[in-house]
Design brief:
Shape: globular
CATH class: Alpha Beta
Number of strands: 7
Largest sheet: 7 strands, parallel
Structural class: alpha/beta
Distance between the termini: 37 Å
Radius of gyration: 18 Å
Bound molecules: nicotinamide-adenine-dinucleotide
CATH superfamily: NAD(P)-binding Rossmann-like Domain
CATH topology: Rossmann fold
Strand order of the largest sheet: 3-2-1-4-5-6-7
Number of domains: 1
Length: 260
């Protein structure tokens, strides 16, 4: 039996990495998926791949920091699919270089928080409105934070702050929904180090592809870097009715990194 059959899902950041893996897995498990990203070419390629595999998907170009864009997109999802059950908010960005806190510019701090934190706020707000209007109401919002939303790391305070914000923001929304007895669950996933284009710049800091990769493999207690599919399987669980008692929680998927 397919695990999210009959559900409508939206995945942001779906053109690449973790978001693309989540979109593929949700579609393979029976959801109709709306892919959202800024990278139209790559987003359409993921959509085509899903459709060739027998799934149902659409692609919409959206900057997740654009509130008017979210309002228009939710109207589009309502018309095309009749409502919304699942969202995985993956769109995100990271620091361009490590900086000591006295050298971090306000511009850089705002750039990261605008996409990671404000983007998640806008996504959650407008997705929740559509989920509330969906009949029957049966929603699951999954916000992608990071292990770096739980533990700090020197040089990336702006990213730490944005991901810590996503973590606690999501708990508050989960409790608001629970208090209203609205059947929408809200949870976060905290990936450890996952092999995606976002991590490539960091890998390069430790040598070429082989050396950098080896450095990151050895950094994980489990002995290997994570793959986007490792995160997608957690998102699938939180998206499905198997997790119907899970809300306001944080799912750490990190090969043991923060257990140390
Ligand atoms: P990625 O770079 O492969 O994918 C990110 C996607 O987000 C890209 O397709 C990009 O175009 C899109 N995007 C960026 N800004 C956007 C915007 N303003 N509007 C719409 N789309 C936008 O990165 P990834 O590693 O798959 O990251 C996905 C999420 O997982 C991010 O939130 C990231 O912070 C988080 N994360 C990643 C790792 C890791 O090791 N890769 C670890 C922890 C958390």
């Amino acid at each position: 039996m397919l695990r999210v059959a009959g559900k409508v899902a939206l995945v942001s950041g779906a053109a690449s990495g973790i978001g693309a893996a989540c979109a593929r897995v949700l579609a393979a498990e029976g959801a109709r998926v709306m892919l959202v990203d800024l990278n139209e070419r790559a987003g359409n390629a993921v959509r085509d791949e899903i459709e060739q595999a027998g799934g149902t998907a659409s692609y919409a170009n959206l900057d997740v920091t654009d509130e008017e864009g979210w309002i228009a997109l939710m109207d589009q999802v309502r018309s095309a699919f009749g409502g919304l059950n699942i969202s995985v908010n993956c769109a995100g960005t990271s620091v361009t270089e490590l900086t000591f806190p006295t050298d971090t510019t306000l511009e850089e701090f705002r750039r990261i928080n605008k996409v990671n934190l404000e983007g998640t706020f806008l996504a959650t707000k407008h997705q929740l409105r559509l989920m509330r209007d969906t009949s029957p109401v049966c929603g699951s919002i999954i916000n992608i934070s990071s292990v770096l939303g739980i533990i700090g790391q020197p040089g990336i305070a702006a990213y730490n702050a944005s991901k810590g914000g996503v973590r606690i923001y999501s708990k508050s929304v989960a409790l608001s929904c629970a208090k209203e007895r609205l059947n929408v669950r809200v949870n976060t996933i905290h990936p450890g180090f996952i092999r995606t284009p976002l991590l490539e710049a960091s890998i390069k800091r430790y040598g070429d592809d082989v050396e950098g990769r080896k450095f990151y493999d050895n950094l994980q207690p489990i002995g290997r870097l994570g793959e986007p599919e490792d995160i997608a399987m957690g998102a699938l669980y939180l998206a499905s009715d198997e997790s119907s008692f899970v809300t306001g929680s944080e799912l750490v998927i990190d090969g043991g990194y923060i257990a140390q």
